[in-house]
Amino acid sequence: MATPSLGLSKMATPMRLFVRKVPEINCAKTTLSSARMLSTRSISAPSARSHIDSLSLSLRNTFISVPKLISTANLTVPASSILAMAHGRQMSMFSSLRSQTHRPVTKFSQTQQRSLFGGSMSHNLLSHLEETANKNPKSATAQNAFYQALLKANMPAIIADRYQTGHFASNPTCESAYHRALGMLGQMNGGGMVTPSGQSGNLGNAQTQAIGQAVAAHSRGGNIAISRGQASGSGDKITPMHVIVDESTGSAVFKWVKFGLYFGLFTYFSLVVVSIMIETFNSFVRARPGGAKTDNEAKAEHQNVRFTDVHGCDEAKDELQELVDFLKNPEKFSTLGGKLPKGVLLVGPPGTGKTLLARAVAGEAGVPFFFMSGSEFDEIYVGVGAKRVRELFASAKGKSPAIIFIDELDAIGGKRNSRDAAHTKQTLNQLLTELDGFAQNNGVIILAATNFPELLDKALTRPGRFDRNIVVGLPDVRGRLAILKHHMQKIIASSDVNVETLASGTPGFSGAELENIINQAAVHASRAKAKAVSMLDFEWAKDKIMMGAEKRSMVISQKEKEMTAYHEAGHALVLMFTPGTDPLHKVTIMPRGNALGITFHLPAMDKYSMSLDEYESRIDVCMGGKVAEEIKYGPMGVTSGVSSDLSSATSLAYNMVTRFGMSPQLGNVDLMTNYEQLSAGTKLLVESEVRRVIEEARLRAVKLIQSKRNELDLLAKALMDYETLDRDEAFKVVRGEKLEGRAILPSGSIIKVPEGMATILAPIPGSEPVDKGPKGPPGGGALA
Questions:
Q1: Across residues 634-646, what is the average pLDDT?
Q2: Span 399-406, average pLDDT
Q3: Which end of the chain has fewer surrounding CB within 10 Å, N or C?
């Protein structure tokens, strides 16, 4: 490819110059000769650029402007051609020599005067150094040589312009030359150099004050400091003025407050966006097939339960039958102006069938059944509970006649007080509002159930809201018999099962517990691969529920096993030979629950009250275990296993003295209600009476067991041999009869110890039975 030409051949060939014999004109003559040579032939771009650089430097050193040179030399070419040659490249490839040419000079100080060739520095040498520096922009040595030559030629502006471009290499020497050039420029400005506008380079006091006021208006009270050094800028874009703003305390505080405000708003909107995304995701999950269903909206259900499926609460069924008749034939009750209650509250212990009764009412009436638990109303968001109450009643009204059933009403209907926040009782307030605006003749009945009616707010249970309470109590023996027969229809029972015996042996059991007995008995028989559920399976299930599960893996020393046997034998003897006690049900030294042994007694019939004689008999039975240990091992051999017996005896004695008026010293006074307000003397008298009652019971137990010492040994030995005895077997043992069909367990620990462990299972000194046993149902008792 051909080298591009600069196109200088169009310049005129003849160039005549009439010069004076002075050094400046001689230099111009040399320069014009170079120009004439360039105009006569085409040369390559690099060579042309090198000649132009030399020509431009020579023209500058002579202080002769290009137009003047043209007119003096009487050239025939237009001045624009020479200008294009000299200035079109901006005097060099990197504009290093431009500023001195265009800077007007008004006067020269002593340091600014120079000779025609810049002192002793030749223009050819400067041109050569500049060309070398341009060809080697990454050579700091070449740049420094050019800078030093410019300093000697008194051309600091070229150094400043060239260094500030950042296109050339630098080192500490170049940087030092740059700083010297800046210093020389500062002296020139102070010595007479003016800005292009003709004004002084430094700002006046009025200008400085105006700039300070302008900056202060946007600095919120900051202090303004302006540099006034010799080299200070004039404030334009080339030589900016250095201004320092000292931020005030108020401005800093305002900045941090603004930052906190922006950060708080950003955090708030971020949380809102995240909450919306979470709600959207949850809605998507609920909408998917098989997704999580967290919607607590009550939906209408049609029940198949009937009153024939409910047993053990005949009185409650009779009262609820009125609601069924009202739902079937409301005109029957409105003829004479009568009104049915808006709400019916079912009260009773857990597992007595309150929810089943409500479902039976809906099933008998054939109306939609809306069911919600009290815990389903409230959530973490305020107002959700009140919203769900409104939706529940609106749905029921839309499908009337209907039944609304709220289980565990105490979860939302608890008593209010003045210290509660307003939003904590919104659900209850909305429920009260809905009950007030609920007409009796709209075909909707509200049923609710609770185990703690005393916790409900009085505004909820007043007449006109939940104004009728139906007690659903524990079933009696006939109710238990009916419940057992109903659930036994679902299993295969053997012919030896006596349902009447099972019903009489489960006093205080609820319907749910009776169903659990039948279910566990069926599971136990299935594990044994039996064809039918036998009476032994039912007895096993009943004992497990009343006394706890057996711990057959527990390793007990022979000594501790014997101590437990004598302890339980003492309870059983007092229970068998003391008038006024409940019949013995079972005595065992098999660990169950938290007890090493249990003596269980059950009443022959359901009991709802007890006499003074019966209370004293119970305390005698409690003291029988400790007395038996004292007689066998002495006072120092009594173990801590008697702690639960002493606790039961003390509780019975306190009730006798403070609640039932059974103390001759204190009389017929209720001291339990305000016991904390009693005087110290009265409390001492109460404690004295409690000690008297317990001590008298201990003496009676000592007298009985000492008179039955042989029976005590026989009963303890039988427990060591058989582990568990029922009532009939215990009486055979104390009469000295043998137990037919019972295999004697091998002596030693209850559980066979693997070989190699017998040596490390020696009796531990001071080993004691566990002090607490499971509590039996109401009407019965369990003694550890």
A1: 90
A2: 87
A3: N
C-alpha angle with apex 485: 479 to 488, nearest 5 degrees? Answer: 140
Residues 505 and 407 in one domain: no
Contact 784, 597 (CB under 8 A): yes
Residues 6+ apart with CB under 8 A from 657: 663, 666, 671, 686, 689, 690, 693
Distance, in Å, from the CA atom of 149 to the CA atom of 57, rounded to the nearest integer, reads 13
Q: Are both 453 and 352 inside the same structural domain? A: yes
% residues pLDDT > 90 (the chain)? 29
Cβ atoms of residues 360 and 306 within 8 Å: yes
Place 233 in a pLDDT band, splitting at 50, 70 and 90: low
How distant is the alpha carbon of residue 656 from its chain centre? Answer: 50
Distance separating alpha carbons of residues 595 and 768, to the nearest angstrom: 11
Looking up residue 530, the CATH number of its domain turns out to be 1.10.8.60
Helices (H), 634-679: 643-658
| Domain extent at residue 700 | 558-735
Three-class secondary structure assignment of 369-394: EEEEEHHHCCCCCCCHHHHHHHHHHH
Residue pLDDT, tens place only, 354-379: 999 999 998 988 888 999 888 888 77
Sign of CA dihedral 136, 141, 147, 150: negative
Q: Which residues lie closer than 8 Å to 337 by C-beta, 6 or more apart?
A: none
Q: How far is CA 314 from CA 257, 321, 779, in A?
A: 73, 11, 22
Q: Which residues of 145-175 are buried (b: 16+ CB within 10 A; e: fewer)?
A: bbbbbbbebbbbbbbbbbbeeeebeeeeebe
User: Residue 271 has what pLDDT?
Assistant: 93
739 close to 718: Cβ distance less than 8 angstroms: yes
CATH code of the domain covering residue 631: 1.20.58.760
The reply to whether 440 falls in a domain is yes
User: Model pTM?
Assistant: 0.56
Q: Report the distance separating Cα 7 and Cα 366, nearest Å.
A: 112
pLDDT at 190 over 60: no
Distance of CA 162 to the CA centre of its chain: 65
Going by C-alpha positions, the residue among 57, 38, 56 that lies closest to residue 47 is 38
User: β-strands 300-301, 598-601: how paired?
Assistant: unpaired
Q: Read off the tokens for 380.
A: 């973490």
SS3 content of the chain, % helix, strand, coil (to 5): 50, 10, 40
70 pLDDT exceeds 70? Answer: no
Cα–Cα dist 337/340, whole Å: 10
Q: Above 80 in pLDDT, residue 664?
A: yes
Q: Which residue matches tokens 């009290």? A: 374
Show which residues are catalytic: 568
> For residue 664, is it within any domain?
yes
Residue 622: CB atoms within 10 A of its CB come to 28
CA distances from 25 to 28, 37, 61, 63, 68 (A): 5, 18, 11, 11, 12
Cβ count near 691 (within 10 Å):
12
Closest CA to 446 of 461, 459, 456: 461
Under a CB-based contact definition with an 8 Å cutoff, are residues 739 and 732 in contact?
A: yes
What CA–CA distance (Å, rounded) separates 537 from 529?
A: 12
Looking at residue 778, what DSSP letter applies? T
Radius of gyration of the chain (CA): 57
Please indicate, yes or no, whether residues 468 and 506 belong to a single structural domain of this protein.
no
User: Taking all residues of the chain, what is their mean pLDDT, rounded to a whole number?
Assistant: 76
User: Do 517 and 601 share a structural domain?
Assistant: no
Per the structure, the count of domains in the chain is: 4
At 497, list the tokens.
């099962």
- What is the chain's length? 784
Element (H, E) at 54: helix 45-61
Q: CA–CA separation, 705 vs 586, rounded Å?
A: 19
